[in-house]
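HUMAN:
Sorry, I am quite new to this. Are you able to go through these amino acid letters and fold codes? The numbers rather puzzle me.
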Amino acid sequence: MSGGAPASVRAAGVRALLGLLALALVALPFYAVWRYETHRREVSPQAAPPAAGVPGPAAGAADGSPADAAAPPVVLAYHDVGPGGRGKYTVTPEDFDAQLAALTRAGYRSLTTEEFVRYLAGGAPPARRSVYLTFDDGTHGLWVHADRILAKYRMHAAVFLITGSVGRHRPYYLSWQEIGRMAATGRWDFEDHTHAQHRRGAVDAAGTRASALSSRLWLPGERRPEREDEYRARITGDLDTSFAEMARHGLPRPRLFAYPFSEASEVSELSEVSGVSGASGPVGSRDSVGFLRRELAGRFAAVLTNSSDRPLPAGRRAAAAGEVRRMEITRETDLSAFRAGLELWTAVPPGACPEPLKDPARWEPMGHGARGVRGGVGIFTGRGPYPGRTGYAGAYYRPVATADWTDYTVDATIDRLREATNDVGIVVRDGSLAPLTVSLSHSYVSLFAGTGARRTEVARRTLHDNAVHRVRVTVRGDRTEVVVDGRFRIDWTERRATGGNGRGGLALNVRNGDAEGEWPRFASLRVAALPGAGTGTATGTAPAAGVR
């Protein structure tokens, strides 16, 4: 008797195997279709880049102008790239291509996040004409449209992900599979935009809505706002989850954070010093505000925003504040507006602005009731128009481009001064944590530290009465020296003017209190870098070339 299985059993086994093979052959096409559909849903096909534009040179190539190792980069803020009609924050592929082409022709290069963070931490500044390209939210159009345009110009960009939205509401947000492919190209870095706090929520029984990140939310079931400990647990839990999600999908720990809705949601240090309200103060206690600032500062090298209560372009001042403001690009930013914006955001040294009053288009009116500087600088030079027979007016000179000024002098001649009826103000370190106003009248010169409700007089000297005075203001490190008519001198050292906190540019104001008298006038105004100070600022020896 054979030890093997009976023939009938062997035959049944063969029939079963054949049946399984047949079933597999029948199911294979269906499985392939399922796999294809799953892949198609998770990884969309990419669109070809627009034919317009010119291929970019190798990364870091310049246009023949001298390089400058001291120039801060310009940070650009995008949201989405896609066909027209998708909303204000979606830039068309054609416009995005044209913008990168313009940057390339002007000799700009894009930075990686590592390069940008290294600079903020005090490392060597990048070469002149650098940009850091950022995209908020993590939208699907970055993979479908933006990626191949970046490749065309050999540029890098960073995406600030709402990790809780990845793979949801397809096809609006990216999938993790698309993010993985983008990361593998080396063109993209991925940073933090919260896990699930990119939303507005009710903060009181009336339904007032505010940022969920920076506000204690209303708990309708308990008819009360969150306690401070509940708010803190929600925020730390959200940030922990966003870090964990990135790690789970193979991404490095994020180094930078972008505020939801591109807002600067905390009360800045400037607000605490000067009493000026923040751009969008949170609903909640000062404890909540302080906690959020500390929590973000402990986790990230810097936070990014599109709005702040003082100019914070990338530079030493922004590094000291731990907050960087970006130039926002929307559907409405045509190429002309893009070029103009880039010029506005490109840092210039004091030596490049010798006579600011001959540059009327770059003065911006002050708030707080100041008027009369919207049609030029005639109110400073004596040509008018004036806001009235009496009043006050002021303006800032290129506040973004001059944010990192230090080691410079301002020389001015003021005339038409009348006893106790009019005066002028020269503000140095403007926009910093240590602004100083030199107030000059017919018979005295005063120094005022700070701004707003907390502005205080810190020094005063009596002058020889005269309708004309000449003043030199020298800003060097944490010291400011004021000399009037070559003989009356005041020295002031500002303890807050440390690191980047004391850097800043120039503002002017004028006041007339006599309806029968004249407004005072700046007969001359000159700015210069101090001898031996190099560039006089961390901004370069010359303005960046225009984007064509």
